[in-house]
Specification:
Blueprint lengths: L22 H6 L22 H13 L6 H8 L3 H5 L6 H20 L3
Amino acid sequence: MSGTSNVGGPGVYEAGDQRNYKNSEINEKDRYKEGQPHSHKALDSKDERSIANKLGREEKRLNESAPEDPETTASKKDPTLPAKNHGNEPSKGAKIDAELAEEEQETLRKKGKA
């Protein structure tokens, strides 16, 4: 029946998407990597973990320290540094924070504690 139609090309009527692969071809393909990091929400309501397991995971998560990126570490030392690293002028608040930190260091030096 498909050979008698004059509408469209022959590819429209062929089942090109239905292919029977050999077992050797299936094994050579990259398999989907199971267990990707952050692929599941920790407190998913449809998760089948018990309440005890969820609580245990949350206790572990609270005890873990999150690794800080270098920009966060630099901003704790100098509040104007992140803006300078990106080629921008530091904000007014960052400038005030830097001035306050300098003043605190000076007062500590005068008192002999630093």
